[in-house]
Amino acid sequence: MPWQTSIHPDHPIVETRYSGVLSTSELSDAINETLALSQTRGFTLFLGDCTELVGGHPVVDLYYFAEMITTRAAGRTFKEAVILPSLPDSAENVKFWETTCENRGLRVRIFLDRASAIKWLLE
Q1: Running along the chain, 123 residues long, what does each successive block of 10 average in pLDDT?
Q2: 104: left (phi over 0), alpha (psi -120 to 50) or beta
Q3: pLDDT of residue 80
Q4: How many other C-beta atoms can be found within 10 angstroms of the C-beta atom of residue 15?
Q5: How many H helices and E strands in the chain?
Q6: What letter would DSSP give residue 11?
Q7: Rounded Cα distance, 71 and 82, in Å
Q8: Are 50 and 18 in contact (CB under 8 A)?
Q9: Which residues face 13 on adjacent strands?
Q10: Integer Cα distance of 28 and 30 in angstroms
Q11: Residue 105: Cβ-neighbour burial (10 angstroms; 0-12, 13-18, 19+)
Q12: Cα torsion at 2, 56, 70, 107 (round to 10°)?
């Protein structure tokens, strides 16, 4: 599976790791699982580790997923740190995700490393 969700061992953060190429339906499954896990635990902090992500998604899909998060309960307190992938094309998609989310009032920020991402989440 090109994605995996888990609870951070030391902090109230739901972490989702993405790797390889994800289909739109796999990305949808990952987002739904991440939000379900956060709701079960009552967590509102998210870490998206995209370091191993390859490729990207159509702009329409990213708009849809940002809108979906906005309309769910998590959207009101949602805070996500995203670690950029190493591939330039994949990184551009992640940067677009950040902008799309910010335009909808979601707190999303991209980072180059895990330590900086977690530090920002916990501020």
Answers
A1: 94 96 93 93 95 88 91 79 91 92 94 98 97
A2: alpha
A3: 96
A4: 22
A5: 4, 5
A6: S
A7: 20
A8: yes
A9: 45
A10: 5
A11: exposed
A12: 100
**3-state per-residue secondary structure call for 47-107:** EEEEEEECCCCCHHHHHHHHHHHHHCHHHHCCEEEEECCCCHHHHHHHHHHHHHHHHCCCE
* Residue at 19: amino acid letter: S
* Maximum CA extent, the chain: 35
Q: By the 8 A CB rule, do 54 and 90 touch?
A: yes
CA angle 114, 116, 117 (to 5 degrees): 65
Q: Is 78 helix (H, G, I), strand (E, B) or coil?
A: coil
| Closest listed residue to residue 46, CA positions, set 72, 81, 3, 11 | 81
pLDDT at 23: 92
* Rounded distance between C-alpha atoms, residue 54 and residue 85, angstroms: 8
Which pLDDT score, from 0 to 100, does residue 73 have?
61
| pTM reported for the whole predicted model | 0.93
C-alpha 35, offset from chain centre: 10
* 117 touches 123 (CB < 8 A): no
Which tokens belong to 51?
Answer: 């370091």
